[in-house]
Amino acid sequence: MFDLSGKVAVITGSSRGIGRSVAECMARAGARVVVSSRKADACAAVVDSIVSAGGEAVAVPCNVSQSAQLQSLVDESVKAFGGIDILVCNAAVNPYFGPMASMPEDAYDKIMNSNVKANFLLCNMAAPHMVGRGGGNIIIVSSIGGGQGSATLGVYGMSKAADFSLTKNLAIEWGPKGIRANCIAPGLIKTDFSRALWENPKLLKNVEEGTPLRRIGQADDIGGVAVFLASRAADYITGQTIVVDGGITVKEPA
């Protein structure tokens, strides 16, 4: 039920961290993978890793903040593998850490353009190709920050909350045409993107002690969930946000 053989998966932000894990996990499940991020050499390294393990992958560099590059990502993916069955919107940015009151306008725009608008555009570009193949799956990687307030990551959390809503609307709009849309909301995952958080000994200790599983997440904790959501095992799940946080959001305050 978790076999993705014959499926084509396009994954943004997949040269490292969560995106790389999703790409490698889906390749192991049989999918043909399009690895995408801004840097071509970083994409090529992931492709080499997948191919050396017996998988099939190509690299299509893309800066998700540029709509023309998003369209090129879709076009090149279809050209390489004949279509798209799975789209994972994982790429995201967070150029600002601090209170919203002193946040520069350009930082706000960068977060919203990359974390929300890019997902909106890319889903609209890719979904028609899924319909032509009888359906497909859209997965947006969000964050538990979308359901919380923050004195330092407020706008990042706002963008991730918007992704929750985007997912629900995609599910309604494209469901009749055979496309499922779901969202993954990770907690603190040990990746380069979140390095400033987990390299802070005090913060790390607080998170670990406040998490029922007593650890922060690893990238493969998300990769496996993405495979599940893209597979036949999740055929009746759509419009949902799956929280993957070791239980920290269900724990009572200390």
Structure description:
This protein has 254 residues and is of the alpha/beta class. It has one domain: Rossmann fold, CATH 3.40.50. Helix content is 45%, strand content 14%. It has 8 helices and 7 strands, in the order βαβαβαβαβαβαααβ. It has a 7-stranded parallel β-sheet, sandwiched between helices. α3 packs parallel to α4 and α4 runs parallel beside α5. The radius of gyration is 17 Å and the shape is globular. The N and C termini lie far apart (40 Å). The relative contact order is 0.15. The mean pLDDT is 95.
Q: Helices, strands, pairings?
A:
Elements: E1 8-12, H1 17-28, E2 32-36, H2 40-52, E3 56-59, H3 67-81, E4 86-89, H4 105-131, E5 136-141, H5 154-174, E6 179-186, H6 195-198, H7 201-210, H8 219-230, E7 241-244
Helix pairs in contact: 1-8, 3-4, 4-5
Task: Describe the structure concisely for a colleague.
The chain is α/β, with parallel strands linked by helices and 254 residues long. The chain has helices at residues 17-28, 40-52, 67-81, 105-131, 154-174, 195-198, 201-210, 219-230, and strands at residues 8-12, 32-36, 56-59, 86-89, 136-141, 179-186, 241-244. It is globular and about 50 Å long.
> For the residues shown, what is the average pLDDT?
95
Structural class: alpha/beta
- The CATH superfamily name is NAD(P)-binding Rossmann-like Domain
Q: What does the radius of gyration come to?
A: 17 Å
What about the largest sheet? 7 strands, parallel
Beta-strand content bin: 5-15%
Q: Ends: how far apart?
A: 40 Å
Domain unit count: 1
- Strands across the major sheet, in which order? 3-2-1-4-5-6-7
| Global morphology | globular
List SSEs in N-to-C order.
EHEHEHEHEHEHHHE
Q: Architecture in CATH?
A: 3-Layer(aba) Sandwich
Total number of strands: 7
The number of distinct helices, counting runs of at least 4 residues, comes to 8
Low-confidence stretches: none
